[in-house]
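User: I need a structural model of Ribosome assembly RNA-binding protein YhbY from Peribacillus deserti for a docking pre-check later this week. Nothing fancy, just the predicted C-alpha coordinates so I can convert them on my end. Input:
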Amino acid sequence: MLTGKQKRFLRSKAHHLNPIFQVGKGGVNENMIKQIGEALEARELIKISILQNSDEDKETAAEAFTAGTGAELVQIIGNTIVLYKESRENKQLQLPS
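Assistant: Understood. Predicted C-alpha coordinates for Ribosome assembly RNA-binding protein YhbY:
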Protein backbone atom coordinates (compact mmCIF):
# COMPACT_ATOMS: atom_id res chain seq x y z
CA MET A 1 0.00 0.00 0.00
CA LEU A 2 1.11 3.54 -0.75
CA THR A 3 1.57 6.03 2.06
CA GLY A 4 0.08 9.53 1.93
CA LYS A 5 3.53 10.96 1.23
CA GLN A 6 4.06 8.54 -1.68
CA LYS A 7 0.63 9.34 -3.12
CA ARG A 8 1.39 13.07 -2.97
CA PHE A 9 4.69 12.45 -4.76
CA LEU A 10 2.96 10.37 -7.47
CA ARG A 11 0.18 12.94 -7.90
CA SER A 12 2.79 15.63 -8.51
CA LYS A 13 4.51 13.41 -11.11
CA ALA A 14 1.20 12.52 -12.79
CA HIS A 15 0.09 16.13 -13.05
CA HIS A 16 1.93 16.67 -16.35
CA LEU A 17 0.98 13.34 -17.93
CA ASN A 18 -1.71 12.99 -20.58
CA PRO A 19 -4.15 10.09 -20.36
CA ILE A 20 -2.96 7.25 -22.59
CA PHE A 21 -6.15 5.18 -22.37
CA GLN A 22 -9.80 6.11 -22.66
CA VAL A 23 -12.74 4.10 -21.41
CA GLY A 24 -15.68 4.68 -23.74
CA LYS A 25 -18.94 3.02 -24.64
CA GLY A 26 -17.48 -0.50 -24.52
CA GLY A 27 -16.46 -0.08 -20.90
CA VAL A 28 -13.60 -2.05 -19.35
CA ASN A 29 -12.59 -5.32 -21.00
CA GLU A 30 -9.85 -7.95 -20.63
CA ASN A 31 -7.86 -6.63 -23.57
CA MET A 32 -7.82 -3.10 -22.13
CA ILE A 33 -6.70 -4.42 -18.73
CA LYS A 34 -3.88 -6.37 -20.43
CA GLN A 35 -2.74 -3.28 -22.37
CA ILE A 36 -2.85 -1.15 -19.21
CA GLY A 37 -0.75 -3.78 -17.42
CA GLU A 38 1.85 -3.54 -20.20
CA ALA A 39 1.78 0.26 -20.15
CA LEU A 40 2.31 0.22 -16.37
CA GLU A 41 5.32 -2.09 -16.79
CA ALA A 42 6.79 0.38 -19.31
CA ARG A 43 5.90 3.66 -17.57
CA GLU A 44 4.95 2.87 -13.92
CA LEU A 45 2.57 5.84 -13.72
CA ILE A 46 -0.33 6.34 -16.13
CA LYS A 47 -3.56 8.26 -16.49
CA ILE A 48 -6.78 6.81 -17.89
CA SER A 49 -9.72 9.00 -18.80
CA ILE A 50 -13.34 7.91 -18.54
CA LEU A 51 -15.32 9.40 -21.43
CA GLN A 52 -18.79 10.91 -21.05
CA ASN A 53 -20.41 8.12 -23.06
CA SER A 54 -18.93 5.33 -20.93
CA ASP A 55 -21.27 2.87 -19.23
CA GLU A 56 -18.73 2.33 -16.44
CA ASP A 57 -18.57 4.69 -13.52
CA LYS A 58 -15.05 5.76 -12.59
CA GLU A 59 -14.92 3.91 -9.24
CA THR A 60 -15.94 0.61 -10.85
CA ALA A 61 -13.44 1.09 -13.68
CA ALA A 62 -10.65 1.96 -11.22
CA GLU A 63 -11.43 -1.18 -9.19
CA ALA A 64 -11.33 -3.35 -12.32
CA PHE A 65 -7.95 -1.87 -13.33
CA THR A 66 -6.34 -2.26 -9.91
CA ALA A 67 -7.65 -5.82 -9.51
CA GLY A 68 -6.71 -6.81 -13.05
CA THR A 69 -3.20 -5.31 -13.09
CA GLY A 70 -2.16 -5.37 -9.43
CA ALA A 71 -1.61 -1.60 -9.64
CA GLU A 72 -2.20 0.95 -6.90
CA LEU A 73 -4.87 3.59 -7.31
CA VAL A 74 -3.16 6.95 -6.79
CA GLN A 75 -6.26 9.08 -7.31
CA ILE A 76 -9.46 9.65 -9.19
CA ILE A 77 -9.77 13.28 -10.19
CA GLY A 78 -12.71 14.35 -12.32
CA ASN A 79 -13.04 11.62 -14.94
CA THR A 80 -9.36 10.69 -14.80
CA ILE A 81 -7.87 7.71 -12.98
CA VAL A 82 -4.19 7.74 -11.99
CA LEU A 83 -2.55 4.32 -11.51
CA TYR A 84 0.92 3.35 -10.30
CA LYS A 85 2.69 0.01 -10.39
CA GLU A 86 6.38 -0.49 -9.76
CA SER A 87 8.05 -1.83 -12.88
CA ARG A 88 10.08 -5.03 -12.67
CA GLU A 89 12.57 -4.20 -15.44
CA ASN A 90 12.05 -0.55 -16.14
CA LYS A 91 12.16 1.19 -12.75
CA GLN A 92 12.04 4.98 -13.17
CA LEU A 93 10.38 6.43 -10.09
CA GLN A 94 12.03 6.42 -6.68
CA LEU A 95 9.25 6.70 -4.11
CA PRO A 96 9.90 8.61 -0.88
CA SER A 97 9.80 6.33 2.15
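Before docking, keep this in mind: The radius of gyration is 13 Å.
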